[in-house]
Amino acid sequence: MRIIRTRGLLVVFILFSLWTTVGCGGNQDGAVGSEEKGGTKVLINGAGASFPNPLYSRWIEEYCRLEKNVQINYQSIGSGAGIQQFSQKVIDFGGTDAPMSDEQLASAPGEVLHIPTVMGAVAVTYNIPEVKDKLRLSQDVLADIYLGKIKKWNDLRLKDLNPEVTLPDRAILVVRRSDGSGTTNIFTNYLSSVSSEWRQKVGQGTSVDWPVGVGGKGNEGVSRQVQATAGSIGYVELAYVILNKLPYALLKNSAGHFVDPSVEGTMAAAAGTADRMPDDLRVSIVNAPGPGAYPIAGYTYILVYREQSDPARGRVLAKFLWWAVHEGDQTAIKLHYAPLPEEVRTKVEVKLKSVSFKDKPLL
Q1: Distance (Å, rounded) from C-alpha 156 to C-alpha 35?
Q2: How, if at all, do strands 232-237 and 112-127 pair?
Q3: What is this structure's pTM?
Q4: Position 63 pLDDT exceeds 50
Q5: Which end of the chain is more exposed for a tag (fewer CB within 10 A), N or C?
Q6: H-type alpha helices, 90-194
């Protein structure tokens, strides 16, 4: 095991096994006995998006205090790897910020349910030692930075947006994800929606052919890379910015207002689409209308097979997710995630009630 302590964030790397293991009543090494006082101990495993990992770790810890015979493991490996392991049935549930595509769903070994858990903002963070103020970034300027067209922090277009800030003659180092990432999907979805050049040359996805920059694995890796490199700019889920005490930019939204990444801005982005969410719950909320809407925001999902192969594990998973979307709001807000709109929560309830074993509902 190797432990690195960064500002405000303890990062643990476990060679060979990267499970974020949280449970109650098990051994300290995470092993689970077959029988515990009060009944059989049930273990479920999940993996995927790093975007919600701070929240999922806390939710798992809280839930397992309530349910002593449950152990839940979640591995923060990125949405792309999470979808892959889920599709191969290596794990009981997957985590992703990028909904599975029609093609992926068609090739899955069972009917897949997308369960949105919370929404989050993707913040644009930077490391400019000479600048203490919040920078303002417009849609076109952010796209051109990631296209490699704006190369220095004192570029005239950046100076025009930030007339009261003395920007240094320092090269910009673009930092982006190196792994398949739902955070990348949200970010590139946004850039594709605001820049025709980005849409044509790069496009949207969990992995893209980046024009410039260096990669970091997970939101954790991008956060560390930005922290360590003067002149850098990166995109990470808001919780990682807050935990690491990183600066973040004010982004110009579709209404022309410069807004902070925030729970309130994320909720405003979702407000206009909640009642129009499709039945399969796969939706984008980037560049949403409204004066307070934060433009780079999205839902994060847990992937579940409707028909479960094991009734005990399936029931634990359904009950945990029901608890999370009903009882986890305050924890989510404290960690800078936005809880589901009530219209969406109602749709999630219907999905969770459909989780079955041999066509018999488990809830």
Answers
A1: 67
A2: antiparallel
A3: 0.86
A4: yes
A5: N
A6: 102-107, 139-146, 156-161, 182-194
